[in-house]
Structure formats: C-alpha cells, structure tokens
Amino acid sequence: MENRQGLAEAYKIDSGTYVAGDSLYLAGTKSARDVWDDLKIPFGMTSRSQRYEDANRVLKANPQIRRIVGHSLGGAVALELQREHPEMKTITYGAPVISASGGERHRAVFDPVAMFDFGAKTELPRGLNPHGYSGLAHEFHSFAKNTSKDGYSTNGTEHLYR
C-alpha cells in the first residue's frame, strides 16, 4: 500500500486514524476542533490534541503497529508518539515542526506549514497545493510478517480491522 492511500483512508474516517497491517495513518486538520489543536503544536502541547488521543487509543488496541505515517497535524502527532515509543518508525508529510535534524520527513518547497522543517526531504510540489501529501507520499510499504491490509494474526488467531 502506498502511504498516500493510507492517508486518504484516514481522511475519510472521523477520528482521522486508519490502520492497515503494521501501519497507523494519521490525517491532518479535518475539523474545527483540529484547528484549535493546531494552535497547541507551537506550545509543545500536541499530546493534548484530539488526534493524539485517538491515535494513542488506536496504538494501544493494535499491538502489531510498528510504523506511523502522518500528514500535517497527523505528522506532529506521529513525531510525538515516536518520542514516547522510540521503537516506532515515523514518516511525515508537511509536519508543522521546527527542526534541522533528519528523518523520514517530507515537505514541498513552498509548503507554508512545514517551512521550518529544515531536516525534511524537500521536493517540488506536484499539483496546486504545496501542503498536500498525495504528490509526496508515493512510497510503497509491504506489511510486516503476519499482517496485511485487512488484519493480522497472533498465535493462530486472526484479527480483522473494522
């Protein structure tokens, strides 16, 4: 599954979270509550956002997750979750962070939200929206052993996503 497909699915769900195999996808700003939560990011209060609470709940309920992919607000949440769970791999697109360190972060050249993420891999925007993820999130991910897009198996028990 490509990261842009997982993110597109996350944007369709009210909570902005979508699980496929060993990956958790986190959507960016979708609601008025998210706009309010966006204002918390510069003050280091990302963990007090609704998206963070929803993502943390999903993470606890899905022990097979090893990778978190986020766009914008979802990217800030992914990085905050990685701080608490350093074993997680994160990939972000257009995350509103101020950083010069590297990582699996991506942004478009003229992205006003991620303009201070100097450690991100910078690409020319594909399309009219410099803050979009679809032109950047073309990485293909194979699910870890015993996981798939539709579920995962532990000790012979099949678990399906809803």
CATH class annotation: Alpha Beta
Shape: globular
Count of individual domains: 1
CATH architectural group: 2-Layer Sandwich
Order of helices and strands: HEEHHEHEEEEE
Give the number of DSSP strands.
8
- The average pLDDT score comes to 85
Computed over alpha carbons, the radius of gyration is: 15 Å
| Secondary-structure-derived class | alpha/beta
- Specify the biggest β-sheet: 6 strands, mixed
Task: List low-confidence stretches.
Answer: 155-159
Count of helix runs: 4
Residue fraction in strands? 15-25%
CATH topology: Transcription Regulator spoIIAA
Task: Walk me through this protein's architecture.
With 162 residues, this protein is of the alpha/beta class. It has a single domain (3-138), classed as 2-Layer Sandwich (Transcription Regulator spoIIAA). It has 4 helices and 8 strands, in the order H-E-E-H-H-E-H-E-E-E-E-E. The strands form 2 sheets. Strands 1-2-3-4-5-6 form a 6-stranded mixed beta sheet. Strand 7 and strand 8 form a beta hairpin. Helix 3 (50-61) packs across helix 4 (73-84). It is globular. The two termini are 17 Å apart. Residues 155-159 have low confidence and may be disordered.
